[in-house]
Amino acid sequence: MPGTRKLGRATDARLAMLRAMVTYLLEKGKIETTVMRAKEVRPLAEKMITLGKTNTLHARRQVLAFITKEDVVKKLFDEIAPKYADRNGGYCRIVKTGPRRGDSAEMAVIELV
Predict the structure, then answer these.
(1) Cα angle vertex 20, ends 83, 80, to 5°?
(2) Do 82 and 56 touch, CB atoms closer than 8 A?
(3) Average per-residue pLDDT in the chain?
(4) Does the structure show a pLDDT above 60 at 97?
């Protein structure tokens, strides 16, 4: 993916972190993280929801290859994706919450709309 942020990590560690964050976002509905991480998570989460809307075996396997928990995949296909059936994109919202106390990193909440 051109234009991706490195987020101070090696490729495999970065992908593992993003997979975990997308999984947790779909599981809980919202997470608090830095703005840069939230901006990287949003397109990945929206792609998973878009795949969930097609509800085919191929789409399910594509999602299973990325999301780390099977019960989250089931929730995506059974609950989350049908909720957005009539919506074309824009499933996530990023709300900035101000700087973090320890290192002043700009924080945000990313949530499903």
Answers:
(1) 5
(2) no
(3) 95
(4) yes
Token match 């991480």: residue? 37
The secondary structure of residue 68, as a DSSP letter, is S
* The pLDDT of residue 74 is above 80: yes
How far apart are the C-alpha atoms of 12 and 81, rounded to whole Å?
28
User: The tokens of 34 are what?
Assistant: 């830095």
Give the residue-averaged pLDDT of 84-109.
Answer: 96
Let me know: does 111 contact 24? Beta carbons within 8 Å. no
3-state secondary structure at position 51: helix
Q: Which residues of 22-56 are buried (b: 16+ CB within 10 A; e: fewer)?
A: bbbbbbeeebebeeebbebbbebbbbbbebbbeee
Does residue 19 register a pLDDT over 70? yes
CATH pick for 11-112 out of 3.90.79.10, 2.60.40.420, 3.90.1030.10, 3.40.190.10? 3.90.1030.10
Domain boundary assignment for the chain: 11-112
